[in-house]
Amino acid sequence: MKIATTRAVIATAAILLTAGTLTACSNGSGSSSSSTAGASTAQIGLLLPDSVTARYEAADKPFFEAKIKDLCSGCKVLYANADGDASKQQQQAESMLTQGVKVLVLDPFDGEAAASIVGEAKAKNVPVISYDRLINSPDSSYYISFDNEKVGQLQATALVDKLKKDGVASGAGILMVNGSPTDNNATLFKKGAHSVIDSSGYKVLAEYDTPGWDPAQAQNWVSGQITQFGSQIKGVYAANDGTGGGAIAALKAANVSPIPPVTGQDAELAGIQRILAGDQYMTVYKAIQPEAEKAAQLAIDLVNGKKPKGDTTVNTAGGAAIQSFLLTPVAVTTDNIESTVVKDEFYGSDSAAKICTADYKAACDKYGIK
To answer: Quick count: other Cβ atoms within 10 Å of Cβ 214?
Structure first.
């Protein structure tokens, strides 16, 4: 399943309007449902869930802030990272609401606990955009993310196809290192992966929901499974590059050779370099820039009282239909690093140089990364 990608997976048109004595930045369709007073100097809250996932500080935050500035030069982004603590995220949200934010863009550490943030925001007439991870609340204004079941399907399909290509016999064993039990996305990744693995002929030896997506905990768990299953482990489904890196560290520490195929997600720089080194088999590239920019666009729309219709709806765990925008994920191996993360300048205009340091130059030359 290969899906073409471009840097602009979602078209996000930016139009700057000046209207009367109330200058406001806006785009999109829909009618105004509230006063837009102060829209041109609005504060917008951005709440991200953890520091162990590299993408948040390296990509989501700067892309979001840059787009807000582009759309509304007088607007200000208030930012906080929960560091993997739902209570801390609650406090951060309450602080932002006290400071008078007009919109909250919330990537919840715990999608259940974050419903209380949405409730408090609603009481203050502050709309909430559920960013990347779905909040279990009927009152979120929007949800923007990727097709997360498809992410799991891409990971598992790549793993199963690789095992078959390598001649690994049916009935051989796979470890599953899933994401955080508090993250709704992790549930969807796992569901998508099982939809492929369960009918593949390969056997899940054991699986683990990694608390907080912590690579160290993933590493510790995989170490225990190596002790228990040893050479029965022929592949590792890891839900993201961090947990994949933890699994690989455990395999190396146990002197497992060759390292079995290990999956990942997020196209972290370290993950791409592990793929080039032959330690990790694949990752899933999610074009974060259009995701962050779409969230910024929606935030500005909401500041201006506009409510554009989503491309689709996604149901929360409680059954509420949320207006949603879902982007397309792409499986990445050595074969298409150049045509995805490098072409899209995922790590900046010098993406190839950042990937192709001295240790990886030969591999970059081999796979045409330049």
So the answer is: 17
Paired with 106 in beta bridges are: 47, 130
CATH homologous superfamily of 148-286 equals: Response regulator (3.40.50.2300)
Query: Which residue carries 């259009």 as its tokens?
Result: 290
Distance from chain centroid for Cα 57: 12
- Tens-digit pLDDT profile for residues 288-326: 999 999 999 999 999 999 999 999 999 999 999 999 999
The amino acid sitting at 332 is V
**Contacts of 337 by beta carbon, 8 Å cutoff, 6+ apart:** 272, 275, 276, 355, 367, 369
Distance CA 342, CA 337 (A): 6
Identify any residues that bridge with 312 across adjacent strands, giving them in sequence order: 324
What mean pLDDT, rounded, does the chain reach? 91
Tell me which architecture the domain covering 43-140+287-327 has in CATH: 3-Layer(aba) Sandwich (3.40)
